[in-house]
Amino acid sequence: MDDLRDKYLTAIAAAADEAALEDLRVQAVGKKGEVSLQMRELGKMTAEERQVAGPKLNALKDEINSALNAKKQALGDAALDERLKTEWLDVTLPGHRRRPGTIHPISQVTEEVTAIFADMGFSVAEGPQVESDWYNFDALNIPGHHPARAEMDTFYMHREEGDNRPPHVLRTHTSPVQIRSMQEHGAPIRIIAPGRVYRADYDQTHTPMFHQVEGLAIDKDISMANLKWCLEEFVKAFFEVDDVELRFRASHFPFTEPSAEVDIRCSWEGGTLKIGEGDDWLEILGSGMVHPHVLRSGNIDPNEWQGFAFGVGIDRIAMLKYGIPDLRAFFDSDLRWLRHYGFASLDVPTLHGGLSR
Ligand code: DAH
Question: Which residue from 224, 255, 263, 317 has its CB within 8 A of the most atoms of ligand 1, so it is best to mutate?
Answer without folding.
Answer: 255
